[in-house]
Amino acid sequence: MPETMAHAELRRARGQRPPPADQRSRSDMSVEHAASAASVQPVEGTTPSAERAARPVAHAQPATHAQPVGRTAQRRRYLMCRPEHFTVSYRINPWMHPATPTDTARALAQWQALHDAYVRLGHAVELIDPVPGLPDMVYTANGGFVVDGRALGVRFRVDERRGEERPFMEWFAAHGFEVIEPRTVQEGEGDFLLAGDVILAGTGFRSAPDSHREVADVFGREVVSLTLVDPRFYHLDTAVAVLDPVPVPDPAAGPHGVPHANIAYLPSAFDDASQRVLAERYPDAIRVSPADGAVFGLNAASDGAHVFVPPRATGFAARLRERGYTPVPVDLSELLRGGGGIKCCTLELRERS
Asked: Strand runs (DSSP E) across the chain, as ranges?
């Protein structure tokens, strides 16, 4: 069994030698004080038919610090897209103002800081080539939903982003994923979040309600529908952050090995019925303030120990520390001009387990 970081600390306390390198886990990441290392501001049913054939563009690198107590970081595989063609030339969400100039160089620098923070903490990052004329391709979370080696493509509600659909599906196919063409309007991991053994699914602004049934059928998991009511939070991943959706071998766990997951959410982004569902299912969730929500604090990525958050979400960061997580601040304020943040720029590639 691979040695976890907690095991390593116990071994060192007992004065034992480390195991041979070939017995160690690839996902071992030692990462105390990761926030200071990464905060260069302006810097989760079915069996796939293909094996992985992708090679990370940026290979995971070993980190050098101690693991936050009580939390275990797990190696992630992400898909990102350089914002080489980023601009705001149309308005499809309240954050976009075409009359306000954008700084593509600044967007690139901030994006690179996020990319480098992932790699520094041991995660694999792959890249899809940006396409001229598709400025929102940088928001890769909207390009698909990938679980167990199956990639469900997207059908965007807005005309301006429909050109992205085919490039993402072609990328998934070229990299060994089983690709499923979508039947309904839905916008990928923007509105579908794997949380333990269930999929949280958003609707209200972008993804159609009937897409939730399609996702349940494709991935063979329970889908929990949630309705968004504030247009500033038009995708689910702007109002909910899944903090530790890591499968663990546990007889008490659900059919896919995860009993539940910790989440954080913004109550006011949801209708009353959805708020009741969230409160019942996640009584210990972090409920963030409207102020932290307004700076896209919940548009965050987590490896189970480190939570990549915007630096202005200070209240959320403090709550994370109280729960034993390490906030890693990364500024994507220029990309927020397009209505996206850290999670929007990050699509998790979950391979067959």
From this structure: 77-80, 124-127, 145-147, 150-152, 178-180, 192-195, 198-203, 222-227, 240-242, 263-265, 286-287, 301-302, 306-309, 326-329, 347-348
pTM for the full predicted model:
0.80
Which one, of 188, 231, 234, lies nearest residue 211 by Cα?
Answer: 188
CATH class of 77-348: alpha beta
81 noted as active-site residue: no
Distance separating the N- and C-terminal Cα atoms of the chain: 16
- How many C-beta atoms lie closer than 10 Å to residue 15's C-beta? 6
Per residue in 297-312, pLDDT tens? Answer: 999 999 999 999 999 9
- Pick the catalytic residue: 123, 212, 344, 345? 344
Residue with tokens 């509600």, as numbered in its chain: 157
Q: How far apart are CA 150 and CA 146, in angstroms?
A: 6
- Whose tokens are 């090995």? That residue is 257
CA distance 245 to 194: 7
The SS3 call for residue 296 is: coil
344 is catalytic: yes
Q: How many CB atoms lie within 10 A of CB 277?
A: 17
Q: Which amino acid is at 95?
A: W
115, 123, 212, 235: the active-site residue = 235
* Cα Rg, the chain, nearest whole Å: 19
Q: Rounded distance, CA 191 to CA 236, Å?
A: 5
Contact between 279 and 295 under an 8 Å Cβ cutoff? The reply is no
Query: What whole-number distance in Å separates Cα of residue 263 and Cα of residue 284?
Result: 8
CA dist 72 and 325 (Å) reads: 9
Strand extents, DSSP E, 81-215: 124-127, 145-147, 150-152, 178-180, 192-195, 198-203
The partner residues of 155 in beta bridges, in order of sequence, read 186
Contacts of 109 (CB under 8 A, 6+ apart): 42, 43
For the chain, helix, strand, coil in percent to 5 are: 30, 15, 55
Structure-token match 């992932």, residue found: 118
Note the pLDDT tens digit of each residue in 76-126: 999 999 999 999 999 999 999 999 999 999 999 999 999 999 999 999 999
